[in-house]
Design a protein that fits this description.
The protein is mostly beta strands. Helix content is 9%, strand content 51%.
Amino acid sequence: MFILADLKDTVRTPPSNFKQKLNDMIAEELNRKLVNKVYINVGLCIILYDITKIEESHIFPGDGASHTSVSFRFVVFRPFMEEILIGKIRSCSIDGIYVTLGFFEDIIIPPHKLQHPSRFDQMDQVWVWEYKTADGEIHDLFMDADELIRFRIVDEFFTEELPKPPDAAEKQETNKTPPYILHVSKTEYFIILINFKTQCI
């Protein structure tokens, strides 16, 4: 579920931070810049693991800050294919089941990916799996909030979003594509599609 990703970046350090040690300044800036962001084709960044190389710092004309090229390793959330994860049901709606992993809540199971046959109970606002037993009886299994579920990763998609004018970005905020999407297939319980709606960098 978590991996160590080797990354490289240029860190800008303002003069106000020069009193700190260089390693501390760089670590603080990398965490500020990357934590809880989706790095395209890498995954969801969690926290800096270590800094492997610090190159020379440069100060450019008109900018009093130092610019330092660094190589580092970051802890990243990126499940491998066929990995089975466990989540918890957060809520249900006619559009599907919303699931949380604890540190991430933008996870949805669309209706067509639920165990078949399933129906949505409007009164209780829950999905119900009509489970057929070996003797032919039908039992309603309610997918209530806070219940644990399992899902298997089968595919992943990264979407890089280009900058837009402020007015256009505001209009499309409600239906923008998440930068990181995982498709998963059923285990013994569900088939799930996960949408990671985090900020893309």
